[in-house]
Design goal:
This protein has 383 residues and is α/β, with parallel strands linked by helices. Helix content is 47%, strand content 15%. Helix 5 packs parallel to helix 6 and helix 16 packs across helix 17.
């Protein structure tokens, strides 16, 4: 029985993880979980599955839950996340928190010899240079949950690293893939939140529309698969059937295909190297799909990809700046404080204003993340 700690259990990935675990309850058990502010949904999940250790973001929510459920153990804040991610009986931490907040619990979990199933891509973007050496030092597994990275991981099974020619990351193109730059000026939050293929949390849905999500995924791929930025290509593929591919030296291309369903990469990260049935999973019928489309992203229309390659190639503190500025600008757009195209403008301005550091420590990353957020707030007069 694999014992799992799910961070961000009330989110899109978190709730789908609960579904996967419930469908294979003879193999998996959630022994600890965390939620942010959605206490109502957390209580619904608690009715569904018996979990002993539970962390919430706010101390007052912890006190409320402690009174109501005296037989379970409650924790709060970042300290609480670290406590549940490092519990003695946890085998694997599935990190489905959104944003920079996922970094510290990941580091502490690795240092407590836990395997990591990582949905929280921001962790690798800002601190790949700290995470990858730690994974090696502690001999733990780092398993991708992001669908593209799971596809690449599956396409690399049994292959030799030196035989890779390039990685081809597919992208749906997000809600605005067919809009001109002019049309992008006035798009609304509601339009941005309508993703054509996937139902996901708000932050990543906006990131998909700006293409910052793909930019973050390029950096995530660099760290997970140890490839140069020159060997990572992004390809728009509107149907989201090919989840990504690897091209080898002999020109062979190996891909992973399937209907869009995040439960598959979640489950594979938990069952690897085995494959279990995906309960209620829709099988792919290529004769129904008939046609698949592919095209190169237009970086004049969306600057985010260029910014991400630039930040990634520079490395050091710059990916953390891009990520922090993007998290802040994304949230301002979601709250109707700025326009859609302001997101990439603010990220670029923040990157230009940053004093670059080559090899930031965790403490420096925390400061740089804060600085980037304040810089964005300051630019729009919201500080
Ligand atoms: P979501 O917003 O639906 O859920 C986020 C979860 O984290 C919630 O439980 C929330 O309460 C919790 N949380 C948020 N901020 C927190 C904080 N500061 N401290 C503690 N808990 C906090 O997000 P999601 O769409 O499930 O995405 C989670 C992560 O997975 C992101 O990094 C995202 O990029 C990645 N991801 C998601 C999908 C998807 O299909 N949703 C696909 C690939 C990767
Ligand atoms: Mg993805």
């Amino acid at each position: 029985m694999k014992k799992i700690c799910v961070l961000g259990v009330t989110g899109s990935i978190g709730t789908q993880t609960v579904d996967v675990v419930r469908n294979h309850s003879d193999e998996f058990e959630i022994v600890a979980m965390s939620a942010g502010h959605n206490i109502k949904l957390l209580e619904d999940i608690m009715k569904d599955i018996a979990v002993q250790h539970i962390c919430v973001q706010e101390q007052r929510d912890k006190e409320y839950l402690e009174k109501k459920y005296p037989h379970q153990c409650f924790y709060s804040g970042t300290e609480g996340l670290v406590q549940i991610a490092t519990l003695e009986n946890v085998d694997i931490v599935l990190n489905a928190i959104v944003g920079f907040a996922g970094l510290l619990p990941t580091i502490k979990a690795i240092q407590s010899h836990k395997d990591i199933a990582l949905a929280n891509k921001e962790t690798l973007v800002v601190a790949g240079h700290l995470i990858i050496p730690l994974v090696k030092e502690y001999g733990v597994k780092l398993l991708p949950v992001d669908s593209e990275h799971s596809a690449i991981f599956q396409s690399l099974n049994g292959e030799h690293h030196q035989d890779i020619s390039k990685i081809i990351l597919t992208a749906s193109g997000g809600s605005f893939r067919d809009k001109t730059r002019e049309e992008l000026k006035n798009v609304t939050v509601e339009q941005a939140l309508k993703h054509p293929n996937w139902s996901m949390g708000a932050k990543i849905t906006i990131d998909s529309a700006t293409l910052f999500n793909k930019g973050l995924e390029v950096m995530e791929a660099k760290w997970l698969f140890d490839v140069d930025y020159d060997d990572i290509e992004v390809l728009i593929h509107p149907e989201s059937i090919i989840h990504s591919m690897v091209e080898y030296q002999d020109t062979s291309v190996i891909a992973q295909l399937g209907t869009p369903d995040m439960r598959l990469p979640i489950q594979y990260a938990l069952t690897y190297p085995r494959r279990f049935p995906l309960i209620n999973g829709k099988k792919l019928s290529l004769s129904d799909v008939k046609t698949l489309h592919f095209y190169t992203p237009d970086t004049n229309r969306f600057k985010a990809l260029d910014l991400a390659y630039k930040a990634g190639r520079l490395g050091g503190s710059m990916p953390c700046v891009l990520n922090g500025a993007n998290e802040q600008a994304n949230s301002l757009f979601l709250n109707h404080k700025i326009q859609f195209l302001d997101i990439e403008r603010l990220v670029e301005e923040t990157m230009n204003a940053h004093q670059w550091i080559e090899n930031p420590t965790l403490e420096q990353l925390v400061e740089i993340d804060q600085w980037a957020r304040y810089y964005v707030l300051n630019r729009v007069g919201e500080d």
